[in-house]
Specification:
The protein is an alpha+beta fold and 265 residues long. It is 56% helix and 17% strand.
Length: 265
């Protein structure tokens, strides 16, 4: 397992948008963690991305999903029961969920993993493109990532939350722009671990291949799991394809419209 710790790719401007994205994700998680279990489930179903809800835009039929509720049955105990939740065909809520899902997380580990990768690799992408193009790449790429998941799981009622699809876009963008940037990486091999310098192409490439293999395995087993593997795959590819275009249009390196520097190699 690879855990990137630091790269040797300097930045010249404060990555304001990256900091704001991290702060918003953290604040939303702290707020949502204060909700009760039932309220958290309602939040995830209504503001996470549920693929089957895309069909509601045309079919206009409600969807019924199960939620868990703790019912106090006596002074000494309680019982966990399932009850149905009806998701109405609300176009505004459905379209908004494509964006709001990027700012919801299921646990501190889920949040910290996404935010660490965003901070580590996003600061360079923001430095290259500038704040607004970077934000457009992040949010627009996140939409592409969700669409990739929908293509493979259009009938799924499992809500997808987390910034990982949008972060995958940033990983793809960084990898195509700075493939040979050296990344200090913590490597785990069973009970052995060490820190080595690895090219970004290797670190992020191994991650991408892992997502691709896991996605193919989920298709082979025909099971809709809780991880949106194809959102990660689609997001990474989108970032790799869009970064040259965005860099040609918006690159701020020496005011030249190119998508890589000779100094990167």
């Amino acid at each position: 397992m690879f855990i990137p710790l630091h790269d040797d790719n300097p930045i010249r401007r404060t990555p304001v948008v990256t900091y704001v994205l991290v702060a918003v994700n953290v604040l939303v998680f702290i707020w949502s963690a204060r909700l009760g279990d039932l309220q958290q489930q309602l939040l995830v179903y209504r503001h996470g991305f549920v693929p089957l809800r895309i069909a509601q835009l045309s079919a206009r039929q409600p969807i019924v999903v199960p939620v868990e509720e703790v019912v106090h049955v006596s002074f000494f105990g309680s019982l966990e029961v399932q009850r149905p939740l009806q998701l109405d065909p609300n176009p505004r809520e459905i379209w908004a969920s494509l964006f709001t899902c990027m700012f919801l997380h299921g646990s501190w580990l889920h949040l910290l993993g996404n935010m660490w990768f965003l901070y580590l690799f996003g600061n360079n992408v923001e430095d290259r493109l500038g704040p607004l193009p970077y934000l457009i790449l992040y949010l627009g790429g996140g939409l592409i990532a969700s669409a990739s998941h929908w293509l493979f799981e259009p009938r799924s009622t499992i809500p997808v939350i987390g910034a990982s699809g949008a972060v995958a876009v940033i990983l793809g963008a960084y990898t195509i722009a700075w493939p040979w940037a050296r990344v200090q990486t913590l490597v785990f091999l069973l009970f052995f671990f060490t820190v080595i310098e690895v090219p970004a192409l290797v670190v992020n490439g191994v991650w991408f291949l892992g997502q691709l293999v896991a996605g193919q395995e989920s298709l082979r087993r025909a099971t809709a799991g809780g991880v949106a593997w194809w959102a990660h795959v689609g997001g990474f590819i989108a970032g790799a394809l869009l970064m040259p275009l965005f860099s040609a249009l918006f690159a701020r390196n020496n005011n030249q419209p190119k998508w890589f520097d000779e100094s990167d190699y």
